[in-house]
Amino acid sequence: MTGISIHYCSVCGHETQKKVPEGDHRPRDVCDHCQTVHYQNPRVVTGCLPVYQNKILMCKRAIEPRKGYWTLPGGFMELGETMEEGAARETMEEACAHVTIESLYMLFNVVHVGHVSAFFLAKLENPDFAPGEESEEVALFAEDEIPWDQLAFSTIGRTLRHYFEDRQAGLFPMRLEYVTPPEHRD
Amino acid sequence: MTGISIHYCSVCGHETQKKVPEGDHRPRDVCDHCQTVHYQNPRVVTGCLPVYQNKILMCKRAIEPRKGYWTLPGGFMELGETMEEGAARETMEEACAHVTIESLYMLFNVVHVGHVSAFFLAKLENPDFAPGEESEEVALFAEDEIPWDQLAFSTIGRTLRHYFEDRQAGLFPMRLEYVTPPEHRD
């Protein structure tokens, strides 16, 4: 993951050059006209594991990547919000559901796509939900109903497996894990 | 924090328009020529608290913002690395010091500047360190030597205060906190 090429300067519209800026250590897209350095950095994905009476709220994706596969509600964190606010917003957008965000549960370095993915434990306040624009279907699943072979991303399976294991002990420690390319599909 | 304006499309160089893309909920800079939507998202700052024989390694900033003030080594996470790798890289760049990253310790939502800041507990392997290009000075501080009134950012003070308190109990739980604008200076 080295980022897309920024061919034109977003500030002045001139063509950029790939070079290592003074005092820097890696090539960036630099505008020789207005001197702007165009950095590219990882993005934060924020989502949650919404629990309602021992069941988990999941969304069947209506969009690519992984259209038709099941995921936990989540998406890119926006400017102007916290990770928790982003997770609740994404749940409202994708599942029309109101959640109370509890603790940070999983954090993943998804290096090959340039993401840091965060999942919070959350409480689904009531069983009111419906597919948002990016979902084909939204449903509550008990542990033995999870569509394990139809999960959208490996981060989803890992989060769910940890959750069901931790639930037996009643302890939900935050985990930071690394996702390797072959097993992750977005 | 609503992001800078992207006046020109980085893909094709044409002027962008501010509009809400179809299926989206907020205004973005959109290129009507090639249809690229230019998203802007929070960036991840990753750093560490390097410990050597009960002392903490800190850096006096040689660059703005907060030039001349003391900080823990850290900086923007890059594409192609994990948060832990980024924290170790920044420590090498700013303090010419080799650390072993241990556990994630502090995570801050710094909404007003669009950052998520992560600090890891780290072990400074040996007392070899020196100022990197972005530091005026690098030094080890015992608890009673910390320059509390010369800290660069509120995240640094919070991380250090939690650390010295947690050290008494010998337990270092991960904390997720929110930084409000008036007390944070970057």
Could you spell the SSE succession of chain A in H and E letters? Answer: EEEEEEEHEEEHE
Q: Which protein chains are joined by the largest interface, and how many residues does each one contribute?
A: A-B, 45 and 45 residues
Distance between termini of chain A? Answer: 13 Å
So, CATH architecture of the largest domain in chain A? Alpha-Beta Complex
> Quick one: CATH class of the largest domain in chain A?
Alpha Beta
- Radius of gyration of chain A (CA) equals 19 Å
* Assembly category: homodimer
Examine the coordinates and then state which fold CATH places here, giving the name of the CATH topology of the largest domain in chain A.
Answer: Nucleoside Triphosphate Pyrophosphohydrolase
Overall mean pLDDT of chain A stands at 94
How much strand of chain A?
25-35%
Helix percentage range of chain A:
10-25%
Helices of chain A, by number, come to 2
- Secondary-structure content class of chain A: alpha+beta
Specify the CATH homologous superfamily of the largest domain in chain A. Nucleoside Triphosphate Pyrophosphohydrolase
Low-confidence stretches of chain A: none
Question: Can you walk me through this structure?
Answer:
- The structure is a homodimer of 186-residue chains.
- Chain A is of the alpha+beta class and 186 residues long.
- Chain A has two helices and eleven strands.
- The first copy, chain A, folds into two domains: 1-40, Ubiquitin Ligase Nedd4, Chain: W (Single Sheet); 43-180, Nucleoside Triphosphate Pyrophosphohydrolase, CATH 3.90.79.10.
- Chain A has helices at 83-95, 154-169; strands at residues 17-19, 28-30, 37-38, 43-52, 55-61, 70-71, 74-76, 99-110, 115-124, 135-141, 175-178.
- In chain A, strands 4, 5, 6, 7, 8, 9, 10 and 11 form an eight-stranded mixed beta sheet that branches.
- In chain A, a hairpin with an 8-residue loop joins strand 5 and strand 6 (70-71).
- The longest helix of chain A has 16 residues, at 154-169.
